[in-house]
Amino acid sequence: xxxxxxxxxxRGDRGVRPPDLRGPLRYLRWLIVCQRRRVAAGSVLGSxxxxxxxxxxxxLSRAIDDGLRPGSWPALGGWVAALLGVGVLxxxxxxxxxxxxxxxxxxxxxxxxxxxxxxxxxxxxxxPRKVTAxxxxxxxxxxxxxxxxxxxxxxxxxxxxxxxxxxxxxxxAVDPLLAVVVLVGVPLLMVLVGPLLGRLQGVEAAYRERQGxxxxxxxxxxxxxxxxxxxxxxxxxxxRFRRSSRELCEEGYRVGAVTSWIRALGVGLPTLxxxxxxxxxxxxxxxxxxSVGELVAVYGYAAVLVVPVEFFIEGGYDLSRGLVAARRxxxxxSLGPGAGSGDGIGADPxxxxxxxxxxxSGVEVVPGRLTALAGARPxxxxxxxxxxxxxxxxxxTWGDVRLDEVDPARVRSRILVAxxxxxxxxxxxxxxxxxxxxxxxxxxxxxxxxxxxEDIVRGLPDGLDAPVDARGGNLSxxxxxxxxxxxxxxxDPEVLLAVEPTSAVDAHTEAAVADRLRAARAGRTTLVTSTxxxxxxxxxxxxxxxxxxxxxxxxHHELLEREPGYRRLVSRGTDDDPVGGPPGAPYEEGVR
Length: 592
What we know:
Layout: H1 24-33, H2 36-53, H3 55-67, H4 73-123, H5 127-130, H6 133-150, H7 156-174, H8 176-223, H9 225-231, H10 234-287, H11 292-333, E1 356-358, E2 363-365, E3 370-375, H12 378-388, E4 397-398, E5 401-402, H13 408-412, E6 415-418, E7 427-428, H14 429-434, H15 441-450, H16 454-459, E8 467-468, H17 477-491, E9 495-499, H18 507-520, E10 525-529, H19 533-536, E11 541-546, E12 549-554, H20 556-562, H21 564-570
Parallel strand pairs: 3-10, 3-11, 6-9, 9-10
Antiparallel strand pairs: 1-2, 1-4, 4-5, 7-8, 11-12
């Protein structure tokens, strides 16, 4: 069932508040609310630190006015001691503020990463159909880090506001005109930077999107490097990648141009503001309106004010980037877990084995039988399997219940789709086969035998404890296919839907797999897609597909006798029938 966007006050499993997916701002607010005590502590420490920055200029001015007089050594010593104490206090506040805000950022990173990983796990085999692996990596690392950095505004960002108010008050005590200059000047600086922050959101969003696409293309290129080498397409794909890299670089320059202006204004405008306030105060001191100590204080206040002004600008910059990143994270976390997985799912699945029917193709999978789909276009057969496995929208029924009305988790617990794109994660072979559950040695041996994969274990130096690289990089294509099949058989699902389980093995191994698969799944519901006569001959029922629909159904031998198109398909076009066949013969073009 698709998870509803969390509302504040609601709690998920184990008291964990679910992410609020109603928008990027609400997502950021969720990260704050989940650690509100720590954020509050960071705000207090940041505010105290920022306000204490304004105290040294005041103490220094008093030391000058009160202490630099004949016989005023006690006053000078007292103000100097106070200045030293404030310095030590501010150093401690700075350390604690930084430590607390680091924890705030790390907590936000971990919460977002946990949410992204949980969503990727929840989507399972549907993940590659909805988003590229590169996009997930970009979200899980880059966007999450940007979001965490945005939470800095909850600490020194809040303190910057208070420091601005305190400095304005101190300047008001010196001279109202100086206070007015500060109260008007600082908001004016923010107004000047505002349009750039809006521009940054646009270019940053475009850059992030293109970065995710490029990362996905790189991941695809690395994963298919052997194939690209084999067909001579490596240079073509590499040139395409280089072109996309140049486009991303140009997009990055646009982001950098806006960012550089924001950074420059973040440093330059406060400095100009400092100069203006200092010049005005110097004129007042020369006219005798304020004392020398007050002049020093005003300079100190203006210098201190540079810090909160920089935080205002930096906070706006971080918030702009954080909203872009949060929008991408929210969009990923909002992806539904399955076809027809909206609200209202609650139908109970059949209590026991039941017929799976796909009205679009006319395929029926009868319980307890080995069913095969044979079509000249493997993609059409795989599409039927995706509908039967509830990976795409369809009107498939399971017994008397529509499959899309059943909770996806309950479907996954009983119906397993095994295809050749399934991931093989890095780890010992035993764990690759068994997954999260411990499997006894006998069950593993039976699964390996049924998949004709015993030789793989014997060929590895440490047997079942031998490491397997990510995606089975240290295994051949045929070995990976048999390991995937063994893993599916070891899971022992009620319904197994296998896509081309023998496409990467030789004829001898294919015959053995067909025999052992039938024996291992005896009495269990199994469907395979294949055009191999060795596999089709072992099936109880074969559905011959033309343009994705059932053109004929029967046993392998029955279809050979009465369907010329089927005969050409399974014999790879080598029988005596003419290629075109009789008029109206049900065959597909492009038969191998």
